[in-house]
Amino acid sequence: MDLAFSNDDLAFRDEVHTFVKAHLPADIAESVRRGRPIAKADIQRWQLILYNRGWAAPGWPVEFGGTGWNATQRYIFDEVMAEFDTPETIPFGLLMVGPLIYTFGTDAQKERFLPKILNGKEWWCQGYSEPGSGSDLASLQTKAVLTGDHYLVNGTKTWNSSAHIADWTFCLVRTSSEGKQQEGISFLLIDMNTPGIEPKPIISIDGAHHLNMTYYTDVKVPVANRIGEENKGWTYAKFLLGHERNSITEVGLSKQRVRRLKSIAEEERTGGKTLLDEPDFAGKLADAEIALTTLEYLSLRFLAEEAAGRPIGAEASMLKIRGTEIRQQLTELTIEALGYYAAPFEMEQMSDRWNEPSIGPDYAAAQMPQYLFSRAATIYGGSNEIQRNIIAKMVLGL
Amino acid sequence: MDMHYRPEDLAFQAEVRQFIQANLPADLADKVRRGLHLDKEDFVFWQKKLNEQGWFAPHWPVALGGVEWNPTQHYLFQNEQVEGCCPPVIPFGVRMVAPVIFTYGSEEQKQRFLPDILDSTAWWCQGYSEPGSGSDLASLQTKAVRDGDDYIVNGTKTWTTLAQYADWIFCLVRTSTEGKPQEGISFLLIDMNSPGIDVTPIITIDGSHEVNSVFFTDVRVPAENLIGQENQGWTYAKFLLLFERSNSLTGSLKQQLHRLRGVARQELTGGAPLCADPAFAARLADYEVQLRSYEFLELRTLGNSRPGAEASYLKIIGTDLQQLASELTLQAVAYYGNPHISDALVHGYNEPSVGPDYAAPAAPQYFNYRKTAIYAGSNEIQRNILSKAVLGM
Amino acid sequence: MDFSLSEEQQLLKDSVQRFVREEYELESRRKLVATDIGYSEDNWAKMAELGWLALPLPEEYGGIGGGAVDTMVLMEEFGRGLVVEPYMSSVIIGGGFLMAGGSEKHKTELLPKLGAGELKLAFGYAERQSRFDLNDVECKAEKSGDGYILNGHKGVVFHAATADKIIVSARTSGGSRDADGITLFLVDNNCNGLSRRDYPTVDGLRASELELDGVAVGADAVLGAVGGGAALMEEVVGQAIAAICAESVGCMDVLQETTNEYLKTRVQFGVPLSKFQVLQHRMVDMFMECEQARSMCYMVTLKIGDEDPVERAKAVSAAKVQIGNSGRYVGQQSVQLHGGMGMTDELHVGHYFKRLTMIDTMFGNKDHHLKRYADL
Ligand SMILES: Cc1cc2nc3c(=O)[nH]c(=O)nc-3n(C[C@H](O)[C@H](O)[C@H](O)COP(=O)(O)OP(=O)(O)OC[C@H]3O[C@@H](n4cnc5c(N)ncnc54)[C@H](O)[C@@H]3O)c2cc1C
Ligand SMILES: Cc1cc2nc3c(=O)[nH]c(=O)nc-3n(C[C@H](O)[C@H](O)[C@H](O)COP(=O)(O)OP(=O)(O)OC[C@H]3O[C@@H](n4cnc5c(N)ncnc54)[C@H](O)[C@@H]3O)c2cc1C
Ligand SMILES: Cc1cc2nc3c(=O)[nH]c(=O)nc-3n(C[C@H](O)[C@H](O)[C@H](O)COP(=O)(O)OP(=O)(O)OC[C@H]3O[C@@H](n4cnc5c(N)ncnc54)[C@H](O)[C@@H]3O)c2cc1C
User: What is the pLDDT of residues B156-200, one digit of tens each?
Assistant: First the structure.
């Protein structure tokens, strides 16, 4: 057992540090610091910078444009990214459909899709959930009927994050209603510009437009855009859910949040001293920090297993549960730190084009929306209740 | 809405207080205050005193020995008892079996059993749970077979509180295996001196002897000791559960808090009293706020003579608070929660205490109070009841 | 980065497991706890023979030269068995002080004996007013000729009755809570002026109250620098906390496994309790607490040797907080999910619960370490 980094690791850390310091655009960092939503163009700008350095996809194998880094290097990379106000990775392309395509896709699919995921030119969204199929995803009803060399897709997908700004979507569709419901599902890649697709906004409790209800009416999808075999989509979806679960841990993001929260607590005052010096608040902050350290070591243990080539089981659901709980703990604590200034709500203030002086401190405006939106974290990606069911069944044998 | 006590209630409160002052010996109050073990004699002494005053069975019908108090007075009475450090009333006779007897019993049964309960000459215990039947009480297996004028009882009851002192036990027994399990249960009153009854202690994690296993081997019970009708026992049992649960906890929670505050004033940290330590003070304040909200919850349900679902959430919240207070007390005494001298909890222990004298009961009480979320319908079962009965799930 | 055990560590684990299996059936433990000294001298001799008493001691003094990970492996298995021998007091803490603060003479004379099981040590630090502050010391040591005279009180000194020597913190200068001015002394258990009141503890161990009334010691009784005891205590108590975290992980694992098994076998309402979703989720939360505790146990074990004292202290306090939280949850819920059975002295569940409860108090509870962490 040891934690020590080799000299190579340390040199690598310096390299990443120097690079991010030199290349992270100041305006993006400022928006991240303030907790503002980051515009698509800014995320693309940052991804292109990483892409040009060859670091767009730390987790991918080299042959597909990844870095080929080992677990330690990936950990170091995330650590350094968290030390700076870097924007969070949008998961749908890089973390979700990308790995799926290089694992199960045809050569043509790899060539067609992977490069543009890497350089950020094409945006993806996830089309799984339906109005009647949430936790019970396998009950989904969106139909795809094979006619000649294409499928005809009809149905409704919902909760699609970023569908209104996405170029492509990966969809689970029903291709058979025989046998178990899991056995009639296929996995399609669908161009969002195809006629018959219509995303309608769903405004979430933070007042923003992240989510959409997407209607499919006689949408033609070439058979060539199916991943793997027909009716085997559930297998691929589960593979991907596994990926999602691990990436939702968000240790790096939470570290960023702790750092920002501390700087807020240094500014906010109570009884003539800073909030950071107030024992009760300091205790809560320490509690959250310790929870995060615990999560970090928990996830390092998984990383080490992975690095040693051992398969990771359903235990990984713990990472999703704790990661999202800690995220919520931190956004809630941030609201608490702001006191009254959590209340003012003007959407315009959250734009980087906002030029008026801010109401209250400049870091305040975006925090309440962040807190509100973070409530979703325990719902999506397999709700935390479902994750507990998974552990109960798969790990504890209950 | 009015949350002020009326003058007559306040006068009543003063009267109760005065009575306690005049009748409760100081050393007995001290035992209660310090959380030391109480003997059978201690309980009986105080119950007899209450009975002399006519206050031992206030919730009984007046004709049988109850008093005509309004709900506020019942509430004040219970709380004054606790505030005054009176030994708690042992519920099995007066609060549990007696209402069953005066509601469903025959005239003979009333005459035979109620007087002994009133003057505490008979000590009762509750024989419901069995090794295989806890939360699923209706699955109980202890058999009673009719044989002439008697029932012959065979089986095992367990977790029977204070059966070692008991003269009588009220038992749920199986008299039929037909139909739903609930429909084959009868309610029997059994003399603990009957041949074939064997009581063995169960020692709990705090080291005390509070519960027992009670074995029945061919125990003959006169059929006249059957309450109501054969196979209707479940109805009486459920009726009884309501009485069991309608007890106010506010008083005893306040007493726990009072004790905890005393400890926190005397313990030191960084040269100052623990109660001035911000983290501990915050915990105390948090506890007090929860207690207040519990008290008002209880007050709101006052006057509902048949508490239904309220009783379930009062049980959950009340026992959570009992456990929390005992946990905070253990934390407050820090290292002095460690020493375990069982005699230190016996009154008249003459050695100087190890550490402060309030420390010895802290750990045993914390361990012992884990029971509160398990017995009288575990808190999980109470939640099931609430989700079914109140939330319609 | 690597969290696996070496081959030797795996062997060590196996052999401690075997020992626990053979000697620590609940019934055997119950008998040990009821004896005069509260543990078994035979077990102690066996531990010496197997090299465990010498495990963390340096090779030049007859030790094995094991590291923090070895100690962790051993303590975790001790936790699984609820082992009552004074390993923590004598080897981890006593040995720790000798290694960190002992003179060459102390080391050559005492360490080999310690490792061979011929010497036992205890550590008296708590006082009535001190709560968890190691530096809140009122016990006084006054210079007298070459040596010192000690006066004062030490409370809840674990395993003092059977120790040959007791390490005592006393003030040689400064005010009651100053970090400077505390000195550690090695005091013979049978010396004049030392009186003890021995008693069992709620978790089946032994401890004592010590009165020091004019105890005279020589200059050679001083461990470390005169007045420099605070840093020494912080270092050694840090190691003890890392070790107790491992013990606690062992306890939690047993509870978690036992409760899981119980839910699968106990039938109510015609089904095993494991079919009720509330209980499944409770069980999952217990499992997660165990895994989190284990992660922090690894963390503190791997960081306890860190050169940066702040980094080290943070690791220690963070781990102690997590272990406190996890131990409380796992202990309480194990009792709850066992229903009435969980309340019985007969079942092992209650004994693990009690040990976990007292582990939270050892060397400062969750609140104490949360504050310490926030202040660092
Ligand atoms: C902000 C946000 C973004 C999202 N983005 C996407 C996206 O991009 N693409 C996409 O396809 N989907 C997306 N989702 C949908 C998400 O995956 C679903 O919300 C999720 O699967 C839960 O489904 P549901 O909302 O229908 O809730 P339901 O399944 O109706 O669940 C309601 C509640 O019941 C609980 N529950 C359900 N079943 C059980 C059970 N068996 N045991 C115990 N508890 C249970 C759940 O945990 C939850 O608390 C997003 C959701 C949100 C909130
Ligand atoms: C100190 C003490 C004193 C007692 N005194 C008496 C007495 O005087 N007379 C008497 O008859 N009995 C007495 N009892 C027994 C008590 O009523 C039972 O312990 C209780 O009913 C629980 O039953 P059990 O112990 O068999 O636990 P089980 O029923 O086996 O329950 C084990 C766990 O599973 C949970 N569980 C069970 N069913 C469900 C469900 N459907 N959904 C969710 N969770 C569930 C429980 O809440 C508990 O956490 C006493 C118990 C104690 C601890
Ligand atoms: C000494 C003692 C004191 C008690 N005190 C009280 C008390 O004060 N109040 C109280 O309410 N109870 C108390 N109980 C518990 C009581 O015994 C019963 O558990 C309760 O009254 C409901 O019993 P029931 O048979 O009608 O079960 P039900 O009402 O049918 O169900 C009880 C619970 O188990 C679940 N359940 C039942 N059958 C199944 C099944 N097949 N599968 C899954 N879940 C199932 C139900 O959802 C419900 O939550 C006490 C028990 C003892 C031994």
Answer: 999 999 999 999 999 999 999 999 999 999 999 999 999 999 999
Measured between CA atoms, how close is A377 to chain B, in angstroms?
A: 26
| Interface mutation target, options C284, C297, C303, chain A, most CBs of A under 10 Å | C284
A247 Cα distance to chain centroid: 7
Residue range C161-217, pLDDT digits in tens? 999 999 999 999 999 899 999 999 999 999 999 999 999 999 999 999 999 999 999
Find the domain containing B39 and state its range.
Answer: 7-89
**C133 and chain B in contact, CB less than 8 A:** yes
Amino acid at A321: I
Q: What is the pLDDT of residue A355?
A: 78
**pLDDT by residue (tens digit) across C286-298?**
999 999 999 999 9
Cβ within 8 Å of residue C23, ≥6 positions away:
C40, C43, C46, C81
Judge whether A137 and A180 are in contact, CB under 8 Å: no
3-state helix, strand, coil in chain C (%, to 5): 55, 15, 30
* Domain membership flag for residue B282: yes
CB A125 within 8 A of CB A163: yes
Superfamily covering domain C7-120: Acyl-CoA dehydrogenase/oxidase, N-terminal domain (1.10.540.10)
Pick from A135, A133, A134: nearest CA to A143: A133
pLDDT at A256: 94
In a domain, B1, yes or no: no
Nearest neighbour of B279 by CB, restricted to C197, C267, C367: C367
- Identity of the amino acid at B297: L
Q: Which CATH superfamily is domain A248-395 in?
A: Butyryl-CoA Dehydrogenase, subunit A, domain 3 (1.20.140.10)
* Structural domain contains residue B96: no
Say how far apart CA A326 and CA B362 lie, in whole Å. Answer: 34
Closest CB from B270, B274, B334 relative to C177: B270
Pick the CATH number of A124-231 from 2.60.40.10, 2.40.30.10, 2.40.110.10, 3.30.450.40: 2.40.110.10
Yes or no, beta carbons of A2 and C1 under 8 Å apart: yes
Q: Which residues pair with B170 in a beta bridge?
A: B126, B189
What is the rounded distance in angstroms from the CA atom of residue C75 to the CA atom of residue C67?
A: 13
Name the fold adopted by C230-375: Butyryl-CoA Dehydrogenase, subunit A; domain 3 (1.20.140)
Measuring CA to CA, which residue among B98, B136, B140 is closest to residue B116?
B98
* Count of residues making up chain A: 398
pLDDT of residue A12: 96
